[in-house]
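Hey, I'm writing a tutorial for new members on how sequence and structure tokens pair up, and I'd like a real worked example in the thread rather than a made-up one. If someone can provide the structure for the chain below, I'll link this post from the tutorial.
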Amino acid sequence: MSKNLTKRSEDYSKWYNELVVKADLAENSGVRGCMVIKPYGYAIWEKMQAELDRMFKETGHSNAYFPLFVPKSMFEAEEKNAEGFAKECAIVTHYRLKNDEDRPGKLMVDPNAKLEEELIVRPTSEAIIWSTYKGWVQSYRDLPLLINQWANVVRWEMRTRLFLRTAEFLWQEGHTAHATRAEAIEESEKMMNVYADFAQNFMAIPVVKGLKTETERFAGAEETYCIEALMQDGKALQAGTSHFLGQNFAKAFDVKFANAEGKQEFVWGTSWGVSTRLMGALVMTHSDDNGLVLPPNLAPIQVVIVPIIKTDEEFDQISNVVTELMTEFKKLNISVKFDNRTTQKPGFKFAEWELKGVPVRIAVGPKDLENGTYEVARRDNLTKEVVSKDTVVTYIRELLEEIQNTLFQNAIDYRTNHITEVNSFEEFQSVLENKGGFISAHWDGTAETEEKIKDLTKATIRCIPLDRKLEEGKCIFSGGKSSGRVLFAKAY
């Protein structure tokens, strides 16, 4: 199997696009700006979904589903949110087509079928959900309301890239209502930490936890918490956000509750979400010039077994041994595939599974049966070992854990080497152009300076790290006072 991938060092963007398609993760669809997620890609998303869903339920959340369409007047109720998403909205104006009399076989919009009120195809669901919560919340006994939904949303992007930015994408969005400000802030921080745990323990991606600047905040939020990851090309990627909404949506949709004293109060809200852009992060953080590299905790197939045979008799002998081996793996919840296709040679299979990022490959032939051994190959560092059949199951169970940890450590090492402190704008520009990564710099806290730096360099403030040291300094651009460093980067 010929991979013919562009090298990352030559054209990282082209490498990414080719890899997503050739590894059978996704492809562009017949609908402009939209993608088809193929079975192998969707299998990875399902594993992400399953782990996140488990984590949400462990923190007390329940799943529900809300409509795809939002009446325009409802969408406009929270002004900042409506303004923030207005340019990305798709709008339904009519509900019927009819035959075009001037062009047989063609359809046209029926002018008599105009909707009384236009419908927004949801870019996010705060409006429809908070309008629903008004009927669900009457008393403090109804709180907290902890709801999540798995859904699709539409944001009419002009420049799209598979997984990273598409007009329609899959995500989850949590929407919660609380009796107090403190409880809502605690929820926002808790969900940011859930996302960070998932990114680090399952995706093997280290993240920086922080706050967005006022300019970068979610439209309609009082505070946006985020996790920021660093890709191999030195660009940042926002991997998840959690928003403290204050009482903005409660006031817009009149969501009140009677407290213990019987007094009416507005509830406090949060929303939080991650999307299929995590698939893009997974691809870009670990993969190499040979194809995908998947962390074992999210790989749909953790172990693939490839027989090396010349005759039907050899195939039968190996199949019997492999069947027993697969039973042992399945007892340990290790996902395993026996690639017993007779239409492809072992070399083709090796290349295919390497391209698809399967963490461990076992090759077994007649000599292996004689010697009581297996050849075990790691995808992450492309090394091989000969392992006794008596210890191979335990060896691979430990190996999968080692690969998971190694991928995480490699990503940490890369990020550590690509966080650079700078103290002047000249130094800032030099690091940005020649090294990339996160740039730790003093900022005067003004939106004006933030915008000027963005205009001049295309770098944005990715976050104000939660663990940053408070230290007096001078803004690298304006020279104004600064109370601590923030992280800048070019980003996806």
